[in-house]
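User: Acriflavin resistance protein. Structure?
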Amino acid sequence: MIRYFANHPTAANLMMLILLVMGIIALPEMKRETFPEFTARSVQITTAYPGASAEEIEEGICRKLEDAFDGMNNIDELRCEAREGIAIAVADMREGEDAKSFLDDLKSAVDEIDSFPELVETPTVSELNRTDQVVSIAITGPMQPNHLKAYCEGVKQRLLSHGGIPQIEINGFSDHQISIEIPTATLRQYGLSAASIANTIRNQNIDTPIGTLMGDEQELLLRFSEQRRTPEEYAELRVIAGNSGAELRLGDIATITDTFADDNNQIAFNGNRACLLSITKSRSQDTLTVYDAVERALEKERATKPATVEFHLTQDMSSVVRERLSLLVSNGIQGLVLVAATLWLFFGARFSFWVAMGLPVSFLAAFFFMQAFGLSINMISMVALLVALGLLMDDAIVLAENIAAHRARGKSPLQAAIDGTKQVAPGVFSSFLTSISVFGPLAFLSGQMGAVLKVIPMVLIITLAVSLIEAFLILPSHLNHSLSHHDPSESPMRRRFERWLAHVREDWVGALVDRAIAWRYFTLGLVVALFLITIGLTSSGILKFQGFPSIEGDQIEARILLPQGTPLDKTEAVVNEIERAALALNDSFREQQPQQVDIVENSIVRYGLNSDANESGPHLATVSLDLLSTETRNGSIPKLLNRWRELSQLPPEVINVSFKEPTRGPAGKPIEIRLQGNDLDQLKGASLELQTWLAAYRGLSDVSDDMRPGKPELRLRLKPGALNLGLDANTIATQLRAAYFGITATEIQVGIESYEVDISLSEQDRNQISDLSRFTIISATGIAVPLESVVTIEQDRGYARIQHVDGQRSVTVQANLDTRLNNSTEILSHTKKVFLPQLSQQFPQVEVVFQGESKENAKTGDSVLRAVVVGILGIFVILSFQFKSYREPLLVMAIIPMAVIGSFWGHLLMGLTLSMPSIIGLVSLSGIAVNDSILLVTFIKENIRQGMAPLEAAAQASRARFRAVLLTSATTIAGLLPILTETSMQAQILIPLVASIAFGLVATTLMVLFLVPSLYGILHDLNWTREVEPLEGKSDSEANR
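Assistant: Predicted structure:
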């Protein structure tokens, strides 16, 4: 095949054209996003029980779900959260199970439960599919909330009709309802109850088909149409009709309004009531395409909107995707230019052009296969392509350099291309297989972090496989024609460079290699000592570790938590203080910004929301600030958060305000510790002790747990003798629930919205404990019985939220971390070693489990370790097969630990923290490092075959491979250099991975040239090298076949 393609006048060009066209066709179809998608592994079961407390939800729903799922062996972890009015259970699937079967099994188990409390609504079971935020549209204007919502509904429908916008959710309003409130005195006056009025409405408010009628000429449909849709229509509904013809209408006794079920969910944008259209995309859609569709549709909306209505784009995540991909593309282009310049320096213009052409050919063909396998263009896949930028050159450079060497011996261009390729083909193919051995297992990493990072080996394997085709079948043909038209040694500058390179090879490198071989045991001892010192950098804490590098975005938040039962007006007062502090924050940073612009662009307040609290109600709020982009602003996120916290003067009743950046990326929270047990008091006590311990660490802030007191409760119990009056517990509870919680009489459709018609006591009659005492119960005989005569009332207070994990109660303690001041790995390690033994003695029934970033690190770290072991075994098998020896592969593989030296010291030099991307880069480097080592050992054995003594063969092989080793390392580092020196905040996630490869490559380049020959000498001393049969009377061409 090599000879055929090298000699054929069109085959190589046609192959190249096919690969280019495949990529050009596939590239526009690839979706773009921030992080790669990963399969949903969790199912959520949501069950509403309106009005129930957390304890009632725990016993009535969570326990029943746990019993139903008991014995299902495809569940990895089951969490159930009980809070007022709702239970949310999440089941995580074990890795390797089928997602559809998992969902079906859970649905079947839920359907079989028949012991839920009577008022529990039907559970909904759904996959927790990932949806990515694209952008939000804030709509403000001087109109009533119900009119604003109606306008936003219209905008939503028009945007969706434009096409290209997949999902829009309206935020800022709860469900619409028609509220009917009746004074207690009126109910007493007419002997009515909320339940009886609900029945009256239900019976009179119908719209139903009742049959057909055959008319004289055609069939007629019969329909009874008595449905009401507006407050005015409900006001005319007859509640009582007397024999005399007198009627009592609903409007005579009730206040009827078109309102929202819960107005605590409102949103304010820059101080004005707003609705927020949140536009998201599914895993299969392109972020930038969706954003462009939003821009086009919004342009039409702006042309027809009322003058008083304003549209604002906010929470724009597409800009993050665009900026990061643009950054990677620009760095990739710079890297390509540097690679081409390096090649030109070694080979000359024409020769280096065809070597460099392997990059666009391999990349475009790789895009085709990436698209076929469902991979997207994202930060991680682009990093893989950046790494490949240097790696792809390895095979091409080895071939090109060897072809040039054969041409220099006087062979014809065609014969040089064929012989040069065939000589190194086994080594190049072995290098490819060793790379697959290393990268392949990394494609099966565990955990969410692993699901994201495993894209790197997948892309690298695809790209390397395509590059092998280009190197063996296309490149020799092009170099054949290049050598026929141009001799790169003719250039005066090239001759000077070659002379200088020869001087370095012989006088510097050669001399050092000779000394390293002569003092081979000292060389080995020196390298081992350096390796042990390097490992000591981590164990001593000089070089720190974190799971995933911090990624700065363009938003910060203040998440507000007050005690359960706090009214909305008190929450608004805290929000006003937080917003005042935000204005002061903007003023204090304005002068540092370019042209002194505002660093805070917008503020959004969302009442009833706090992502940390996992609760709902008027005691919660989140204030979000849109900031200048990371590339424009002066001021890091930690500085802004600390200053905002300092400027906020919070009242003492506030439980917690957490100032943080919304979580992005696959890693969990830096500090998240779960306490598990059965006794809530023990769990709370252990949590308080743990919070006190964590609060003492520098850099930790907003330490809190998720176990807080709920709303005060009044517990009613039946008095003896109540049954004598014809009143049982269910009768009393039903009437009280209808009066105080409200009862849904019916549900109607108004346009595209569904309205509930709810009946309750008027608000002024259900605000005081005294109102409850005066409440009367209507008996079965119609007698009004005072409530206090049939029940006792006791005060109590439970918990706002009770969390279960695998059937056990749990409390989660979490904190924010300033990574400039401390390291989560060190904090958790110290806590585990020093504090947890004390905690276990004090609370022996409480189990401690590390969650968040620590859990993800453990999951992914374990799978990385397994991948490394499998990869090293794979390398050993391949090399053992190639060298026909069990010992010589160890010589090649000895270079792998040496990559650690360059990587760790490179991190220290650049002030970086080790992270999981660093480890992935280091593991990837092990596949690269052995490539030069394989070819060097091959050349040593070739020299021995030519009749050289083993030590001389090692020294000469190192000299002979110096140029190729230097060139492959130089091109790889040149390709990575732009991203390594990038100052952009967007690049901070990429730099650790690139630093591992670049600095590790510097170390392995030196180790290959000096350590491998020394180790070969030591193996020879021990008589552990395989005997090589000398060549006698064979030409180079024959020997290389």
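Confidence is low (pLDDT under 50) at residues 1033-1041. The chain has 32 helices and 30 strands.
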